[in-house]
Amino acid sequence: MKIAHCQFEPWVGDFEHNLARFEEGLKRADAEGAKIVSFPECFFTGYPDTEELARKGAFAADSPQMQRIRDITARHAAVAIAGFNELRGSDLYNTVVVAHHGQKLGLYSKCAAYMKFHKQGRDFPVWEIDGLKFGVLICADGGYIEPARILALKGARVIFAPHFNYIGDKGLISHFMKVRADHAARANENSVYFVRGNNVVLDPAKSGITKNPGIGYGDSYVMDPHGEILVQSRRHQEDFITAEIDPNHKQDTAWGLSKSAWSFREFAPFVTEAVKKRGL
Q: Which residues contact 239 (CB under 8 A, 6 or more apart)?
């Protein structure tokens, strides 16, 4: 099965532009024969660092904007995974929509939301297409053990992780190394493919980041279940990547369970005990 990611630049507050790029990406996915294609975190709205800007571009899951997104997916074959700032009542979430053939299959909201104005998501849905189960994490979520473990235990064989990165130059290399290490661990410990679907920033004025200068360098990739990179994007420019994956890849079950599942079963009580002793 072929999967894909569009390493495009979202423009903050410009839904029309981002929607046009969304369709462009879906057309490319169809031309390449991809079954699933992802787009960066908060792709439809941009990812501003102030609540005022985030709310200004946000929309609800049952809004006219979402209907237009669904209408575009009805014209294309690939399952689409794309992010937006979601209004849920008065609350704001960093959310991804999964849509196919004009239908909203579901939502996932970031569970380790970096911005303080975002509520934390606590649902971990899994979807299936042509026998392949997949789940979604968003950016920082992939740096923690449990979210990926939950998806894998629910049967996900691929984890898509849309990102929006805009990193200060002094922390660029350390961020680059840490993120790759996190994702290799998540892939290996859960025996899953891991898709780091990043953005790129070509025009900082369109990034929505107002509090610090930075670099949106890209570096999207697909890791195999051993943590090896199958394909990666070019950096500092827009790109489109595809990878052939084996939907029937078998988990590492040397202990009768995946490494992550066995570890949780055997050691979770000791983690709980250690946490209690520290008064956390």
A: 7, 200, 218, 220, 233
CA dihedral (165, 240, 60, 132) positive or negative: negative
- What is the mean pLDDT of the segment spanning 238-249? 96
In this predicted model, what pLDDT tens digit does every residue of 105-114 receive, in sequence order? 999 999 999 9
- In this prediction, residues 216-223 reach a mean pLDDT of 97
Please state whether 271 falls in left (phi above 0), alpha (psi between -120 and 50) or beta: alpha
pLDDT tens figures, 49-82:
999 999 999 999 999 999 999 999 999 999 999 9
Q: Which residues pair with 205 in a beta bridge?
A: none
Q: How far apart are the first and last CA of the chain?
A: 44
Say how far apart CA 9 and CA 24 lie, in whole Å. Answer: 12
Amino acid sitting at position 15: F
Cα angle, residue 26 at apex, residues 227 and 118 outer, rounded to 5°: 65
CB within 8 A of 63, min separation 6: which ones?
Answer: 87
